[in-house]
Amino acid sequence: MSSKLSITINSGRGQALPALCRYCTLALITIALCSCGNDTETDGGTPVVKVYGHTLYVDDVEHIVPDGLSPADSAQFVADYAKRWAEEILFYEKAKSNVADDGMIEKLVEDYRKNLVINYYQNRLIDEHLDGIISDDSVRAYYGRNHESLRMDRPVMKGVFIKLRKDSRYIKTARQLISRHDKRDELERLSLKAAAGYLYFRDQWMEPDAVADRSPFGPQLETMDRGGTMLETTDSSYTYLFYIDSLLPKGSEMPYGLAEKSIRETIRNEQKVAFIRSVKDDIYRSATEAGKVIYSTPQQ
């Protein structure tokens, strides 16, 4: 069978054209295959290639040809796909002939299938019976019980960052304003006029990346251990000012605001585990009462 198939697909002109081109693709592949001496099979359609009793049909390939390819590229795509498909079958058959048939593979397949079915059923039950709503009171109660064990794996900080042209006449003013909580409006007006970058986060904890991605400070921020610190540096184009109001070093107790999201996920997972445990207990109890679970020795 020749691998040179003439294929026509969507050229991107008009809304009705993609469907039309798909039909053309199928027709042209069929014509090309038939001209190579391949008979159309009534049970599965027109075969593209057969290997060891496995058949790849035109319908299988036609639906995965990407839109926008030229006829030549479409033909090449089909040829490449068919070759990869055949190689996979051949390699599988080769592997079968060289792997001892000791039941290990079948056991692995059965174990995988069992786990797949169980996980699918578990997820369906969870979706049907758990609403996913975690109350704020539950989160705060969890934090109250576990806050001492919730630790930062990176430092976090609050502060203000501003980036100015190195020759800006506003640098001195920015230095004076950046540490003042009561001068936020003035600093923001300055940033609108002259800043190439500005970040105000006195009201929320942020990781060093928030500033490191905008400045040359980089690793220096990872090793900071206290707030009330002013950092300044200049490169060939800009001056960077960063005032750190507050800082929690690595290993510090995690603030509630940062812990809240992970706590909700933890509570949600605990709910899932408890729910599935109760379902399993109910199934086991019902089966035992019905005499479907029989032990050779009495169970306590």
Describe the structure.
Among the domains are: 17-98, no CATH class; 152-248. 48% of the residues lie in helices and 16% in strands. The chain is built from nine helices and six strands; from the N terminus they run αββααααβααβαββα. The chain has helices spanning 17-35, 58-62, 71-98, 104-129, 136-146, 171-177, 184-194, 209-212, 256-289; strands at residues 47-51, 54-57, 156-165, 195-206, 229-234, 238-248. The protein has a four-stranded antiparallel beta sheet. A two-stranded antiparallel sheet has the order 1-2. Helix 5 (136-146) packs across helix 9. Mean pLDDT is 85; it is low at 1-23 and 25-40.
Task: Tag the structure with descriptive keywords.
disordered N terminus; two-stranded antiparallel ribbon; 9 helices; 300 residues; flat; 4-stranded antiparallel sheet; 48% helix
The share of residues in helices is 40-55%
Radius of gyration using CA atoms only:
33 Å
Report strand order across the widest sheet: 4-3-6-5
H and E string: HEEHHHHEHHEHEEH
How far is the N terminus from the C terminus? 69 Å
Low-confidence stretches: 1-23, 25-40
Protein name: Peptidyl-prolyl cis-trans isomerase
Organism: Candidatus Avibacteroides avistercoris
Short description:
This is Peptidyl-prolyl cis-trans isomerase. This protein is an alpha+beta fold and 300 residues long.
What are the SSEs and their pairings?
Blueprint (H helix, E strand, L loop, with lengths): L16 H19 L11 E5 L2 E4 H5 L8 H28 L5 H26 L6 H11 L9 E10 L5 H7 L6 H11 E12 L2 H4 L16 E6 L3 E11 L7 H34 L11
Antiparallel strand pairs: 1-2, 3-4, 3-6, 5-6
Helix pairs in contact: 5-9
